[in-house]
Amino acid sequence: MSTSSQSSAGDEKHASKVEVTQQPNEIEHQLSTFKSLNGHTINVVRSQDRQLALEQLGYKQELSRTYSYFDLFGVAFSIMGLLPSICAIFTQSTSAGASSSWGWLFTSFCGILPVGIALAELGSAFPSASAVYLAAWKFAPEKLKDVCAYSVCVLDSIALSAGACSVFFSCSGQILSCVQVAKTDFEATHGKKYGIYAGCIILGAIIGSFSGKISVRIQQIAIYFNLFLLVLVFIALPIGTKNKDIPFNDGKFIFGNSENYSNWSTGGNWILNALVPAAWTISAFDSPIHMSEEAVYTPRNMKRHVLMDPKASPAAFGIIMSISACGLLGWLMLICIYACMGPSVSAIMNSSYDNILTQVFMNSLGKKWTLAIMSLMSIGCFLMGVSAIMATSRNFYALCRDRVLPPIPADWLAVVNTKTNTPVRAMYGTCTVSLLLGLLIFQDQGANSLFTIAVAGFYMALAIPMLLKITYARNFFDKGPFFLGNKSSYIINVIAVGYQCFMIVLMMIPSVNHPNKEEMNYTVVFTFGILAMALSGFYLFMHKYFKGPRSNLSDQEYLEAVGEDAGIDAILSQEKVE
């Protein structure tokens, strides 16, 4: 298919030159470009072998490949942790009435799923833990590549860190709710919340640093544990409601009840509180991408439809499966809870418990069963946090590898532990950031901002490469094994960008109309403030170090990894002009 001429093996300044007949319409003939450590610009034809494709992008394979597409589904599904997450957002959802279940269904499948599909295409095209920012760098105009990529790095990192914080914060709240059930005179203070929060993060970081084989088992346990929780509540709650002679709510109540516990109009309150809960729960679905360098791939079977070949794009299918499962199961769970909560919404909303779902369980199941279920949900929430901090640490490792931080700390953090084959240093860097962000717990609005920053920053980071893909890069964007075709891909990305812009605005609107300083939503301040400081730092000094993707392969290592024996059709190397 091609002929080659090998340059001198001892000359480290040159690489092989090979002539090739290009076939641009085939997946295996897409051209990638990166700079080696020696300053050479290297162009390679991308392989369907995802491990080989990673090395074609210029990165060493340092992490152990142990995750199947089902395991990556488990990472995202366990982060979403359906029942613990519903517990966390139930107050907001119920403040719009039982009909908020429609908002969950609409947001899940008309908004979040298109975003997930668009993200799956990006992750498939760039099989790296830093795929989102790599896509932004590749798709942006030449003069804006570095600043676009850096902006995505900052937004995605802050969103992931805030997401991990919000999960562990919810976990600490659920643990304290269990104590409240057992001891009615117990007072949950900010100090107690932060103490439990810090302990959960440190323990989660230790577990997340285990070897790949152990981590895979943890994800599998998390999948089945979360499913067990759902089945338990689906069975126990209706039985308990019937035994307590609490009347079941009918379909008119479940699908038509509307409430307004704010000073917004009823319609405005419904939009704010019925559409947002699903976005808070079904989030961090980019986690399979950040774990993609640990995924086991099978080359794409071109005889099958792309949707019938999940092993060729494990991260892509992990994203889509987790969103679909949580969208459907979450909707059914809300219907179940609203059917069993009793006819008085006010009685539930005015509960003395820190989490009002506890009141629903107490009414239907009694103290012992409520304590048991809440305890199990606390464990499920902790497993969510472990998955979240694992994905965050992989992203942190990948960004440090490309020197998003100054060289000395970045190079120190971008080291993989040789015993566990995991980025232990990046894990504890992530842990430190989470402990600092967690100090917002001591201010109620600051704590709420952890949730909104996690979603607003996340969508802002994803929207940048997706917007570039349908505008500037529309005629030359990269395609991976998972790609639905030019027309379908364009429509999906347009929907995804539109939904993300809409949801970013919703995340920054205060929960009450004409808020005072205690009621203000500070998400806009935190998100844009952090981004402004980061960009200031970039233009002042980080532009000297951050130049986009930075290969950690020498020319010789590159040739050994993707030389003629690997079946590469073309390798062109030329020295950088000094």
Task: Give a structural overview.
By secondary structure, the chain is mainly alpha-helical. The chain has one domain (60-550): Amino acid/polyamine transporter I, CATH 1.20.1740. It has helices at residues 50-56, 69-80, 82-94, 100-125, 131-139, 145-182, 190-208, 212-243, 251-256, 266-274, 276-281, 287-290, 314-340, 345-349, 357-401, 407-413, 424-437, 444-470, 486-507, 523-540, 555-562; strands at 2-5, 17-20, 31-35, 41-45, 571-574. Strands 3-4-5 form a three-stranded antiparallel sheet, with no helix packed on it. The chain has a two-stranded antiparallel sheet with strand order 1-2. The longest helix is centred in the middle third of the chain and has 45 residues, at 357-401.
What's the order of the H and E elements? EEEEHHHHHHHHHHHHHHHHHHHHHE
Assigned CATH architecture: Up-down Bundle
- Largest sheet report: 3 strands, antiparallel
* Structural class based on helices, strands and sheet pairing: mainly alpha
Overall radius of gyration: 24 Å
Question: Treating each run of at least 4 consecutive H or I residues as one helix, how many helices?
Answer: 21
Described by the principal axes of the CA atoms, the overall outline is globular
CATH fold-type name: Amino acid/polyamine transporter I
The CATH H-level superfamily is Amino acid/polyamine transporter I
Write the layout of secondary structure elements.
Blueprint: E1 2-5, E2 17-20, E3 31-35, E4 41-45, H1 50-56, H2 69-80, H3 82-94, H4 100-125, H5 131-139, H6 145-182, H7 190-208, H8 212-243, H9 251-256, H10 266-274, H11 276-281, H12 287-290, H13 314-340, H14 345-349, H15 357-401, H16 407-413, H17 424-437, H18 444-470, H19 486-507, H20 523-540, H21 555-562, E5 571-574
Helix pairs in contact: 2-8, 2-13, 2-15, 3-6, 3-15, 4-10, 4-13, 4-19, 5-6, 5-18, 6-7, 6-15, 6-17, 6-18, 6-20, 7-15, 7-17, 8-13, 8-15, 15-16, 15-17, 18-19, 18-20
